[in-house]
Specification:
Helix content is 44%, strand content 18%. By secondary structure, it is of the alpha+beta class. Strand 3 and strand 4 form a beta hairpin. Helix 7 packs across helix 10 and helix 7 runs parallel beside helix 11. The longest helix has 19 residues.
Length: 263
């Protein structure tokens, strides 16, 4: 709380935003900072005391670094949760996963990752990409969005298992929105991600599968796909505006997904 910070850590500078913009609040904080590397940590995280140095070392050794992500465990520390992530475009739909086949043998080794919503970021590059996109508010997918754009820009996201954090995944979101609405938000934001980011070379697959997916979900008694799609349509103009304003990429979508397959 603000009261606790004022009492116990009076030297900490606090920036209070007029409203809760979730991860997008980091954008203003990044602009206020003069640091080369910034650490973006949510309220559902705790960290080992020595988590900073291994992540900073990435930026000292890797001039192409955009993000350095820690190895993440569940909040009780009993099992691996994520940060070593793959991205995929499968059957016309985008997704990211941290428990992909064979992940168990790779989580102890440093390497690259495709996305993380927290960790250490190269501040200038984070701001060059515009930070987290408020198109996705209240949230989900904005971390995939900025990392995907960073990879296409030619920068790299690194995974550093010697830095460790503990995460209560979507604890606030689940409590506030409930499972069904949260699934609808995920569906909505996935459509927005595709409309904004995916190039024409893959977009035809999305359009081909689009009529099939609602039938699949409805046969399983799940309505969130249609809910999310209609919800996304209200933000289509904003997504397209961002699409046509994006800079020329250094890597194609297929090249980024090919890198993901090497993880």
């Amino acid at each position: 709380s603000l009261e606790f910070l004022k009492k116990e850590f009076p030297d900490v500078r606090v920036r209070v935003t007029p409203k809760n913009t979730v991860l997008c609040a980091f954008n203003e904080a990044a602009r206020d900072s003069s640091a080369d590397v910034i650490f973006l940590l949510n309220n559902d995280l705790k960290a080992k005391e020595d988590f900073i140095a291994p992540l900073v070392r990435i930026f000292e050794e890797r001039p192409d670094a955009f993000l350095a992500a820690p190895r993440t465990f569940t909040f009780d520390g009993k099992r691996y949760e994520g940060s070593l992530a793959k991205m995929y475009f499968r059957r016309g739909f985008f997704g990211a996963e941290t428990r992909f086949p064979g992940y168990e043998s790779k989580i102890d080794r440093p390497g690259v990752t495709m996305q993380s919503g927290f960790g250490a970021y190269h501040r200038a590059r984070f701001l060059e990409l515009g930070g987290f996109d408020d198109l996705y508010l209240p949230g989900t997918m904005e971390d995939s969005d900025i990392c995907f754009r960073a990879w296409k820009r030619g920068w790299r996201c690194y995974y550093e298992p010697r830095s460790r954090m503990y995460h209560k995944g979507q604890a606030t979101f689940s409590a506030h929105f409930g499972r069904t609405r949260l699934r609808a938000i995920n569906q909505r934001n996935t459509h927005l991600f595709i409309w904004k980011n995916v190039s024409a070379g893959l977009l035809w697959q999305y359009l081909l599968w689009l009529p099939v997916r609602p039938v699949f979900f409805l046969l399983r008694g799940r309505t969130e796909f249609l809910w999310g799609l209609f919800w996304a349509l209200a933000r289509l103009p904003r997504a397209l505006l961002r699409r046509f304003r994006r800079p020329m990429p250094h890597l194609s979508d297929r090249q980024v997904f090919a890198i993901s397959e090497t993880i």
